[in-house]
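HUMAN: You are asked to prepare a plain-text protein record giving the amino acid sequence and the C-alpha cells, both parts labelled.

ASSISTANT:
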Amino acid sequence: MTTLLITHGDCLAHDTGAYHPERPDRLRAVLKAMEQDDFRGLIREEAPRASLDAMARAHPGDFVRQILAAIPDHALRQIDADTVISPGSGEAMQRAAGAVVRAVDAVAKGEADNAFCAVRPPGHHAESTRAMGFCLVNNAVVGAMHARAAHGHKRVAVVDFDVHHGNGTQEMFWDDADAFYASSHQYPFYPGTGGVKERGAHGNIVNVPLAAGSGSDIFRSRFADEILPALEAFKPGLLIISAGFDAHKDDPLAELRLTETDFAWATANLMDVARKVCGGRVVSVLEGGYNLDALADSVTAHVQTLKDH
C-alpha cells in the first residue's frame, strides 16, 4: 500500500492559548510519531491552501470570508466558550482544509492508495454557518464535496470515531441522499447530538451512541453490526475517516475506554469495506485526541494500518 501523509507547519500557528486542550503540541506529537523508522516509506507532502470555492461547497455564502475577516492582528479572539482564533488561525484553517482536498485528488487519481491528513484545527463540529467545538471549517466535508465536484464521486461517505459526535458533518449531510455519515461516540455528551433516532432525511445517517465507560467489546460489536454494513450498503465512491482519538481510555476529555488497538481494528475494517465498494479509496483526517502520548500511539496504529493492511 502507498500512503500519503499531508501536513503543514502553518497548522502549528493556530494558537488557542496556554491551557486550551486543542493546542499545537497535539500536532507536534503526531508528527514526531511519524518520524519512526516504520514510516520512512510514506509519501509526504505539504498541504496547499484550500480555495474559497472549495470551502464554499461545504460552507455556503460568506461564512468562510467572515471567519477570515475575524482573524485578529494580535492576541487571541474567542468565537465561543471553546473555540479560539489567533493571527495564525486563518492560514492554519486553509491548510487543514487544503490537505483534505489534496488527499482526495491524490487518492482519486491513483497517486496513493490512501492518505492521512495530520492537520489542525479539527473540523467535524463546524456546521455550515457556525464555527464551534474547537472547529472552524469542516475539513472532512470540504473533502467530500471536492470528491463529488472534481472527481465525479457522487456518493460520498464520512465515518467518524471521535469520542464527540460530529454535529457539523451530520448537519451538512442531513438532507443529502448521496452523502452518508456514521459516527460512534460517547452519549449523552458534548455537543448533545448523535442520538440513535437521528437518521437523516433519507436514512443516510447512522449514529452509534456509547455510554460512558464503554470499552473495546461494545465499541467493536456495535461498529461491526451497525456502521460497517450500512457503509457497505451505501456504496460510496470515496470514504473519508474523521479520525479522532479521544475515545482512548487515557484521554482527559471523555470517558470511553478504547485503546490504540481498537483504532487499528476500526481502520482495517473500514479499509476492507472500501476495497469492496470504492476501490479502496480512503482519506483520513485528524480530529480530536488530547492526551499527547495516547494520541501519538493511536495515530501510529492508525497510519500503520493504512500503510500495511
The chain has a mean pLDDT of 98. The longest helix spans residues 89-108. The chain is about 40% helix and 15% strand.
